[in-house]
Amino acid sequence: QVHLVESGGGLVQAGGSLRLSCAASGRTFSSYTMGWFRQAPGKEREFVSAFSWSGGETYYADSVKGRFTISRDNAKNTVYLQMNSLEPEDTAVYYCAAGYRSAGYNYWGQGTQVTVSS
Known about the structure:
The chain is mainly β. The chain is 0% helix and 52% strand.
């Protein structure tokens, strides 16, 4: 079982930055692929970014490529999402997710609100 807790959301003006954190419980964090998803009002949840459990591969949605950076610290059981050049379209609840190796995401955090004002 993995318990995920996100933090770092808030209100920021367009062009600003935020860093989201996701702290995970458990002693096998390094065996999990970690991802970030978001859901805007009236829209479906969408993929934002992921960091593989092995090899250090990172993945990004086209809409955030070049602006967002995912990183992880296995010693701290934490994954981060650095968000720069934020746009009003980035406004959403951001969720952290974990999946054992490449098995798909089956653990989710409660979400953290990000609001970008124009």
